[in-house]
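Morning!

As promised:
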Amino acid sequence: MVSKPMTVKFPYEKLETAERYRGEHVFDIDKCISCGVCERVCPNKAIEMVSAKDKEKYPKKYPKIDLGKCCFCALCQEFCPKGAIKLTKNYFLATFDSVSLIYIPDKNYKED
Ligand code: SF4
Ligand code: SF4
């Protein structure tokens, strides 16, 4: 009766995540050197090196990430020599459309 509620009114209110929380990935195609290390270290085979749609601007292969397969271990972030992949604190990824969890390189998904 006298103490504050333990819960929040999600999704209107959110709890702060831990500083090192590992959530949704962001990828910067302009930093990527197409070395393929992220694909090789991914334990869940969630990363596949694929061609970009804009082959003129991006002629090499780049990581396509399927967050539906990902265990959010952050090895891709840790081993990327250019800091092209980063995991953010965004955990709000629930969806009925599994295709929306596949991030293609051309999406060039960057943090705002
Ligand atoms: S966080 Fe781990 S499982 Fe997810 S894509 Fe990166 S290496 Fe693979
Ligand atoms: S995202 Fe990083 S590790 Fe993956 S191919 Fe590009 S530079 Fe290499």
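The longest strand covers residues 61-66.

Hope this helps with the figure draft.
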